[in-house]
Structures are given as C-alpha cells and as structure tokens.
Amino acid sequence: MKAIAVLTSGGDAPGMNAGIRATVRTALTCGLSVFGVKRGYRGLIEDDLFQMRSTDVSNILQHGGTILHSARSEEFRTAEGRIIAANNLRNRKIDGLVVFGGDGSFRGANDLQREHGIRVVGIPATIDNDIWGSDYTIGFDTAVNTALEAIDKVRDTAAAHDRLFIVEVMGRHAGFIALEVGIGAGAEEILIPETVTQIPEICRKLQSRLDKGRTSSILVVAEGDEEGNAYDIAKKIEAQSGMKSRVTVLGHVQRGGSPTAADRMLATKLGYGAVKALLDDAAPCMVGVEDGSISRHPLADAWTRKKELDKLLVQLSSGLE
Ligand code: ADP
C-alpha cells in the first residue's frame, strides 16, 4: 500500500478534525501518500481530492466540524456511483480509504471494498454513540458536555420561575446522549426510546414533587422517544395533569464546538488505529476503543449488532429522586 485517502461522511461530529490530523500524520510517518476527499462520497464521485501534507492538518485539532466537509450522496448508494468513485481512487493509485462516519457510511465503504477491492477502514464518528464495537464514538462526549452546560443554565431559570422545563436532546433512535445528559444535569425524569415512557407515572411524580414543595423540574427527552418529541410530551403532560411547561430543543448546538479532551484522545487513537489496520491488511474493518485499547471489528457489526445502554446508568436514571 502506497497511497490512502480519508473522508468524513454523514453527520459531522466534534473531534473529526483531530481524527483527520492523526490519520494524515500517522500515514505520512509510515511513508504513505495521503489524499483528502472533500464532502464525503459526493467528493469521491466528483473526484474532489487533494494531496495532504502535514501542514494541512496544523491547528485544526481544537476545532469542531470537519475541514474536509461532509455531505450525503444518493449516487454512492448505487453500484454505478461506486464504479466512478473506485475509478477516481485507482487513477491516483489509491488503494486504501479511511471513512469517518456512522453505520450508513460504513455500509457504503463495505460495498466499495467488496465490489472494487479498495481497502476500507471505518472510524465511528457520530454524536449519537449508537455504534457497536467502540465504547464511545467521536463527538459524543463533546455533545454531552455542550448539552449539560445548556441545561445547567435552563436549571437557573427553571428554579427562579418555579417552572417545569422539557429539554430535548439529539440521539436519533438511541438514548445515549439523553441518559448521560439527564444524569449529569440531575434531571427529574429522563425519557429515552429504550425504556417505556409512561406519561401518567411522570405526571404523578411531578405532582408529588410539587406537593413536597419542589417547585421546579427538568425533564430530558431523547429526540427518538416513542411518546414523541419535547412538544408532544409537553402537550401530553398538560392534557393529563394540567401542568404547563416550557420546551427547549437544543438541536444542532450539540453538534458543534471545540472537542473535549476525551474526544481528542479518542479521535487521535482511532486515526492512528485506522492507518495501522490498513497497513496490517485488516480491512475491511471498523476500529474502536474498548476498555482503553484499540479494537478491530468487521464493518458489518456496525449495523447488525446493537449497542446497549449502560445498565447501571439506566437504573440510576430513575432511582435518584
Ligand atoms: P451515517 O454514516 O452517519 O449513518 P448516512 O446514513 O447519511 O450517515 O450515510 C452517509 C452516506 O453513506 C450516504 O449519503 C450514502 O452515500 C452512504 N450510504 C448510506 N447507506 C448506504 C448503503 N446502504 N449502501 C451504500 N451507501 C450507503
């Protein structure tokens, strides 16, 4: 292997830049040429690649977003699109590809290796943390900290005005962000898709808090909760109990910002680990960090296996009233 390419795909996540830096510098140290691909698979099809030097990744580690930009590409989902992408890589004599993204991006990468022999390694990068095979994904820790900071502020106004606040956090179909944010912020209730949300029970607990003189409460809701989003929950609580609330949807602020130390360490380990996996001929695989060490798993595990929530945290999410 003489040349590799790197791209970021799907939703951006803080720490991607730290990961790109580690990938590029590890590759250069190992004597490989490295190409950056702009806008994920779209750029691969449009041949939007450039050769990267060490200085191209100077001073990026501390920034959110991705210097390579990210995009979604419908064309890459088709066999015809992947033929164009593979030809663009071959024309530059690139035979290895590092993909930062989620399970969708990994499916595409797997197809590229199966159909065209381009060796691919996936790096789990999504704030949602919903990828099996790595204790954490790049961006999750930063997103949790960003949401926590926001909720601490909401808590001040909730307390000052004796109010009930319902705060919605991201996470797609999973409750990883909501669980850690809810516990970290001392939320009175945490609503996640993995556990059954019982509105009557929530109303009963809120009323009992009021009866004890605890006049403000915060509910953290995962965007994928089966009872609906924060506005739906607010309506249901009001319909059943008459209690009014204020809704705060944190939204995309959770995706931005400077990565935390934990995300920088994770991204640096994974960028290094991906290049080593390519050199060891371990592709196709996904690299993760489990119990502090770099691990390798088949890419397909990312979409066939389901990562579970920390059972103790789930227990604590409703046990500290
Ligand atoms: P994520 O990687 O965060 O899950 P997406 O699901 O949006 O994000 O996937 C990112 C890109 O990966 C898509 O725009 C598409 O180009 C490619 N992709 C997603 N799913 C597939 C698939 N089943 N087969 C081939 N390519 C896919």
Q: What does this molecule look like?
A:
- The chain has 321 residues and is of the alpha/beta class.
- The protein folds into 2 domains: 182 residues, Rossmann fold (3-Layer(aba) Sandwich), CATH 3.40.50; 116 residues, Phosphofructokinase domain (Rossmann fold, 3-Layer(aba) Sandwich).
- Helices cover 42% and strands 17% of the residues.
- The protein is built from 11 helices and 11 strands.
- It has a 7-stranded mixed sheet with strand order 3-2-1-4-5-10-11, with helices on both faces. A 4-stranded parallel sheet has the order 7-8-6-9, with helices on both faces.
- Helix 6 crosses helix 11 and helix 7 crosses helix 8.
- The radius of gyration is 22 Å and the shape is elongated.
- The N and C termini lie far apart (57 Å).
- The site of adenosine-5'-diphosphate (ADP) has 17 residues, from helix 4.
User: What helical percentage do the residues reach?
Assistant: 40-55%
CATH architecture of the largest domain: 3-Layer(aba) Sandwich
Structural class: alpha/beta
Work out the number of β strands. 11
Show unreliable segments. Answer: none
- The name of the CATH topology of the largest domain is Rossmann fold
Give a list of the ligands: adenosine-5'-diphosphate
**Radius of gyration in whole Å, from Cα?**
22 Å
Distance between the termini: 57 Å
The helix-strand sequence is EHEHEHEHEHEHEHEHEHEEHH
Mean pLDDT: 97
Strand order of the largest sheet: 3-2-1-4-5-10-11
